[in-house]
TrEMBL record:
It comes from the Bacteria. Residues 1-26 form the signal peptide. This is Copper chaperone PCu(A)C. InterPro entries: LpqE-like (IPR007410), Lxx211020-like (IPR058248), PCuAC_sf (IPR036182). The keyword Signal applies. SUPFAM superfamilies: DR1885-like metal-binding protein. Keywords: Signal.
Length: 171
């Protein structure tokens, strides 16, 4: 019994230290995905939406096909792109994650959109998010994360990550 408790505590400490460092390897059923610089943008009272961001590196070809969270009534994978001189944001059905290629989910590009927030996302708290992947055989797998909530992008995510108006996004 004590050995089991120690093993669980040691595993919990390892997972916590990986999450705090901003990088985590996870085995989600058959999907191996490295997650780096994961975070969600803090919101204010009355704000109905916010974004979540990270870098994903798949160890096999995958598609990010969904996102789930208890923090919002609607959670989707979105893209922002210029169409002419207008920035457009829309939900996408899937985001390709080529094997070994880092794919950034960042402000102004691909990101997770959390809409109809059930409560404000408070700075220095965490928000639970589950990513849903599909492999080449069509098998689904899930990866559950606790994203730190920040007011601004972490420095490691690079300069120039400016907020692109996620809070005011409406469908």
């Amino acid at each position: 019994m004590n050995t089991r408790r120690f093993t669980v505590m040691a595993l919990g400490s390892l997972v916590a230290s990986l999450l705090v460092s901003g990088a985590a390897w996870a085995h989600a059923d058959a999907a191996h995905v490295k997650v780096e610089n994961a975070w969600a943008r803090a919101s204010v009272a009355g704000q109905q939406a916010s974004g979540a961001f990270m870098r994903l590196t798949a160890q096999e070809p995958l598609k990010l096909v969904g996102v789930e969270t208890t923090a919002a009534a609607v959670a989707e994978v979105h893209e922002m792109k210029m169409e002419g001189d207008v920035m457009r944001m829309r939900a996408i059905e899937a985001l390709d994650l080529p094997q070994g290629v880092a794919v950034d989910l960042k402000p102004g590009g691909y990101h997770l959109m959390l809409q109809q927030l059930k409560a404000p996302l408070v700075k220095d708290s965490q928000v639970p998010v589950t990513l849903v992947f599909k492999d080449a055989k069509g098998t689904l797998s899930r990866l559950s994360l606790q994203l730190p909530v920040r007011a601004t992008a972490p420095a490691a995510a690079g300069a120039g990550n400016q907020h692109m108006g996620h809070g005011g996004h409406q469908h």
